[in-house]
Design goal:
globular, alpha/beta, 33% strand, 31% helix, GMP Synthetase, Chain A, domain 3, 10 helices
Length: 376
Amino acid sequence: MRRLHRGALLLALALLLPLLGGCLDSHEIETLAIVSGLAVDRGEEKTFRVTAELISSKNEQTSSLSVSAEGDTVYDCIRSLVSPAGKTLYLSHCKVGILSLDAAEEGLPSLVDWANRDTEGRLTMSLLLAEGRAADLFAEQPEAGTAVAFNIADSLNTGPSSVANLSIHNFIDLGVDVGKTPYAPVISLSEDGAPEVKKLSFLKENVPAGLLSGEELLYFSLLRRDGGRRTLTVKNDRGAYTVELKPERSDFQFSHEDGGLQFRFDYQLGAELVDISYPFDPHDEDAVARMEVEIECVVKNGLKALAARSQSEFQLDIAGLGSVIYRKEPAFFESVRERYSELYRNAAFSFDTRVTLRGTGVSGVTVFAGERGEAN
């Protein structure tokens, strides 16, 4: 009887063997060429030219290089890429997808479609636009043991605000969510040849429709109410100072009267003084109050200027205010959906900003060498 039970157990185990998982398609890392980033430009003979930055490892040494291929779609280009030494291309670690501005209209849908459909594509890949040729960004020689694409991805994830980073997954959400305008960070080469992200482009039917840079990114962050920290430099007749602003409270209200839209923003901002070029006494309540009022005026004027630019130049609801209207009053939004763009262009904006200086340092006075005594 015991032998019969043992035989039945062995038979059951034998029947289960085909169901067990395995690693029949596994590869040793030395046989892989890991793709760290993709750059999409206009092709010379075909529609697109895709450049891939590859990382290979041999004898515990890591190096990177670039390979390119042309095709009528991004998928065609990727499948035509040939790795040196016959190594297998591994795309699941691709961190960034970069498109030149002139390739964005046709290239964006093609890149997003590949990432969304191909099993090796990753929707968490960061999406960027490039001023100039996207492939030029991979021409910089990175530090040993790393890659340009990885460095770009790290700089995006550790930036001061989420405005600077946009995954393909988030880009798809922006494109399908009602009342939102797609955008993408813009990357370029600095004077010393290093990649940097200091601009942002809005997209209208996949065509770049306007650029933001500098302090406009602060005001865009406030309009979107994303809560990120941003620095602001204020100049006056005494010199200049820089503060780091953090929204402590933000409120957006809208109304629709007399056939038009009215948008009202209310901000409570905390400010930390990080740099100042002239003597400032943080214990002087009047001086602190004057600085707070000055910052309030600068921020308010900046918000007004960006809102006006979005209405007249971009003609786009850059902050996605339509999505808030749709969420709170869907019936009203559906009734004006066809003419919402016109309503937005003629909407009345009002801003109320209040700033509280939270940190000023112990003294606030710039101390120069020798000011506190001379060496003997």
